[in-house]
TrEMBL record:
Lineage: superkingdom: Bacteria
GO CC annotation: plasma membrane
Protein name per UniProt: Sugar ABC transporter ATP-binding protein
Translocase found in the keyword field: yes
Originating species: Streptomyces kanamyceticus
Membrane topology annotation: Peripheral membrane protein
A Pfam short name: ABC_tran
Main location (coarse class): membrane
Locations listed in the record: Cell membrane
GO molecular function annotations of the record: ATP binding; ATP hydrolysis activity
Record bears the keyword Glycosyltransferase: no
CDD domains linked to this entry: ABC_Carb_Monos_I, ABC_Carb_Monos_II
Assigned keywords, A-Z: ATP-binding, Cell membrane, Membrane, Nucleotide-binding, Repeat, Translocase, Transport
All residue ranges annotated as the ABC transporter domain in the record: 2-238, 256-499
Length: 501
């Protein structure tokens, strides 16, 4: 259905694609994988009309193709679901679902009754029941992702591109998504599937193309590759090295002090949290477990002052701080890495240098004048320390891969020398290599005495990376697992319980 032949694409200082061949066939789910920066997103944007290739050619449905805009690709029958929900937050769910193709009545006016009815039916097919008249921004990230999926599935597409579609979904929604993908495959639609989650790839994909440094290093049937070989191809390492080091980079338990650095008591936020308490000691990694919507992100935001609380208190090193105030939390030594790095973290139009220095500007200034030399030293230090891949510190952060954007955010908050670091899905949507680097950094920070709160939907990451795990359900604490109790079985049992702790 869609193929690229010898496609190359170069940006200033970076050759993103180098003579890439890729073919998506009708009735096939084709995995496109590689580390962040390998060229996956660039290839998708070339295939869908966002970028024009420098050299090479595209073929669609057997004939040469050149899409000058994403709208051209969509009209041709190519539908794309991006990792970051790419819809209009202020518009209703129904308007988002039918944006640009609204049903109209006899006078050419939008038929809202029909649009609402069709939107409800499309979402019901995916197991989602919401008021389609509500603004999209009122839904959680997972529900927004399902709206994006419903939109893609309702378009008469011949090719569907899915870029990390499960990154914000809970297990039930993932099963629904896989059911939709199987239906698309049965209808003869080509599906291009991008994901860093190996379990998903082996469950749903037929073939695989592996990119590394902008080049194709493998193409073939996924069933012919075992997991270690696949990881080794992505990382460019020997299988024995991968087998020895494993797929996570956590080292084990940490030495912690007895007195907590953070105590959050009885945090209550109407309709979100009820009497949630968390303590973190210096050098300790405390995991926050639970399903999507259980209150994990809300707990982190309440501690960081980004979500006003109805009641509860937060103390840092024995000193109570004002809740509902982000500046007060930052001054006290609390830093939050948010779940949605695009909407709540990076400033895409600013450079890597500006994004890293953003929070630290007040202490890098004297009498209102910024010390450029100190900024350069700070930025260079963190680019080296976190191995941030950018053509220069002045490259726009929006041009970086997801994993490198995440590292820039980490650098910004580490530059503040925090006492407590709240990490909300720190490895979401980044590749295995970048994930291992972030996990290793979390261990390193804990060993240096930093208190860490780790929120992750990756059960393996949460279990291996945490000293203790506080489990939430429906905004309440249902369990706290410590030491040998921190196992996948105990975590799942706690999530399934109906009684609060």
């Amino acid at each position: 259905m869609l193929s690229a032949k010898a496609v190359s694409k170069t940006f200033p200082g970076v050759r993103a694609l180098d003579e890439v061949d890729f073919t998506a066939r009708a009735g096939e789910v084709h995995a496109l994988i590689g580390e962040n920066g390998a060229g996956k997103s660039t290839l998708i944007k070339v295939l869908t009309g966002v970028y024009a290739p420098d050299t090479g050619e595209l073929t669609y449905n057997g004939t040469p193709a050149r899409f000058t805009t994403p709208l051209d690709a969509q009209h041709a029958g190519i539908s794309t679901i991006y990792q970051e929900v790419n819809l209009v937050p202020l518009m209703s769910v129904a308007r988002n679902l039918f944006l640009g193709r609204e049903p109209r009545g006899r006078l050419g006016l939008i038929d809202f009754s029909r649009m609402h009815r069709d939107a409800e039916e499309a979402l019901r097919d995916l197991g989602v029941t919401v008021d389609v008249r509500r603004p999209l921004r009122e839904l959680g990230v997972g529900a927004q992702q399902m709206v994006a999926l419903a939109r893609a599935a309702s378009v008469d597409a011949r090719v569907v591109v899915m870029d990390e579609p499960t990154s914000s979904l809970e297990p039930r929604e993932v099963r629904t998504l896989f059911g939709v993908i199987r239906t698309l495959r049965e209808r003869g639609i080509a599906v291009i599937y991008v994901s860093h989650r190996l379990d998903e790839l082996y469950e749903i994909c037929d073939t695989v193309t592996v990119l590394r440094d902008g080049k194709v290093v493998h193409n073939g049937a996924l069933a012919d590759l075992d997991r270690l070989r696949l990881v080794a191809l992505m990382l460019g390492r020997e299988i024995e090295t991968v087998r020895k080091e494993g797929l996570t980079n956590f080292t084990g338990t940490h030495d912690t002090e007895t007195e907590p650095v953070l105590v959050a008591e009885n945090l209550t936020v109407s309709h979100h949290l009820h009497d949630v308490s968390v303590t973190i000691r210096p050098g300790e990694v405390v995991g926050l477990g639970g399903l999507l919507g259980s209150g994990r992100s809300e707990t982190a935001k309440a501690i960081a002052g980004a979500l006003p609380t109805d009641s509860g208190r937060v103390t840092i090193a024995g000193e109570r701080i004002r809740t509902g105030s982000t500046p007060a939390a930052i001054r006290a030594g609390i830093s939050l890495l948010p779940e949605d790095r695009k909407a709540e973290g990076i400033v895409p139009g600013l450079s890597v240098r500006e994004n890293i220095a953003l929070a630290a500007l007040p202490r890098l200034s004297r009498f209102g004048l910024v010390d450029e030399r100190r900024i350069d030293e700070l930025v260079d230090t963190f680019i080296r320390r976190l191995r941030i891949k950018a053509s220069s510190p002045h490259q726009k952060v929006g041009e970086l891969s997801g994993g490198n954007q995440q590292k820039v955010l980490l650098a910004r908050w580490l530059a503040m020398h925090p006492k407590v670091l709240l990490l909300d899905e720190p490895t979401r949507g980044i590749d295995i290599g970048a994930k291992a680097e972030v996990q290793s950094l979390i261990d390193e920070l804990a060993e240096q005495g930093l208190g860490v709160l780790l929120i992750s939907s990756d059960t393996e990451e949460l279990i291996e990376g945490s000293d203790r795990v506080v489990v939430l359900k429906d905004g309440e604490t249902v369990a706290e697992l410590t030491g040998p109790e921190v196992t996948e079985q105990n975590l799942l049992r706690a999530i399934a319980t109906t009684e609060p702790a």
